[in-house]
Amino acid sequence: MGVTERRKERMKEKREEFEEDRSEIAEERKWIAEIRDKIARQREQIGRYRGVIARSKDSTSQSEILELPMPEGLLVRRMNEREKELGLVEWRINLYEGYLNRKEVRLKRQELKVNLEEEEMNQRDKALEPELKELNQRMDDVNQLKEDIRSMKEQVRALKEINRQNSAQIIGYSPDGGLFRYAPAPEHFNARKLNPVASAEWETRWEPSSFPYLCIEKFNASCVICQGDFAEPLQTLGECSASTEVAEEAPELLRQLPCRHVFHRVCIDDMLQNSSRSCPVCRRRVDKEFIQHVYASEDMSDEDGSWENIP
Questions:
Q1: What are the beta bridge partners of residue 236?
Q2: CA-CA distance, 300 to 302, in Å (whole number)?
Q3: Helix, strand or coil for residue 278?
């Protein structure tokens, strides 16, 4: 609830309080009128008794005196006391009526103040109506944008699920099943991803290979399983010093896991098949689908069903 709605609700409550106060004042005035009527009837009766007593002094007839409720002296004394009581009651009634008049005036002032405040608020709302309309339009745009973001998140989640189920399409791996060769990373190397595939320009600096090269810093170019360094390829720039014997030697291939850590192919294959399916560096779990795809692409024999029964 906004500020304007709260103020309108408060004004509505005040108006209800004003109506209750008016009803209370009307009831009190009705009660005062009844008391004044009773006082008038009692004074009328006292006046009638005094008239009877006055006429009895000038008349020889005793018939009216016999109608008096008590002896003349006692009646006069009682009437004087009653007139004093009626005067005191009337004085108190006048005081209370004055209090009601002041309360009614105060109520009118408060109602006038509420009316002025409501009129000012209506004028302010009328002046702010274009801005409120624009703000509502912006809120609608924001809600629509949230819906679009939610839809995009669902699409991304669906794509991630597809990639998880079809790990053979992981970006950054060679079609040979994740087999690479090591290439020293250039100086001041700053890659966005760990152990990225070497660019075409950088790959031409090294001897030709049927497997893509990975740019790995020299301090990190070793297998954590066997503690052996990766075989560094020969450079092709400048005078080529590669002999026939060296070229015929097949370098030890590397395998890159989905977490992008690199190991000797022989080391990591033996570990994944026989001991553990977690990366030795980051302990990330290697998906079974990835392992099956990698080794199926290399046409490895599975006569004993070892790859199907990966732990």
A1: none
A2: 6
A3: strand
Of the ranges 141-155, 163-177, 266-280, the best mean pLDDT one:
141-155
What pLDDT was estimated at residue 54? 75
Instruction: Give the type of residue at 262.
Output: V
Rounded Cα distance, 263 and 280, in Å: 9
**pLDDT tens for each residue of 249-285:** 557 889 888 888 899 988 988 888 888 888 999 988 8
Residue (of 298, 273, 270) closest to 179 by Cα position: 298
Q: What is the pLDDT of residues 173-214, one digit of tens each?
A: 444 457 888 888 887 777 677 888 888 888 888 888 888 888
pLDDT of 288 higher than 90: no
Residue count of the chain, please give it. 311
C-beta of residue 185 within 8 angstroms of C-beta of residue 218: yes
Q: Specify whether the backbone of 4 is left (phi greater than 0), alpha (psi in -120 to 50) or beta.
A: alpha
Q: Please enumerate in sequence order all residues whose Cβ is within 8 A of that of 294, keeping only pairs 6 or more positions apart, or say none.
A: 177, 178, 255
- Burial class for 290, CB neighbours closer than 10 Å (0-12, 13-18, 19+): buried
Distance CA 298, CA 244 (A): 27
Distance between CA 93 and CA 99 in Å, rounded?
A: 10
Q: How far apart are CA 120 and CA 204, in angstroms?
A: 80
What is the C-alpha separation between 213 and 200, in angstroms, rounded?
Answer: 9
pLDDT at 119: 86
Per-residue DSSP letter, 193: S
Kindly state the helix (H) or strand (E) to which residue 297 belongs, with its residue range. helix 288-297
Query: Is 23 a residue whose pLDDT tops 60?
Result: yes
* Residue 201 Cα distances to 79, 206, 212, 213, 235, angstroms: 130, 10, 12, 11, 13
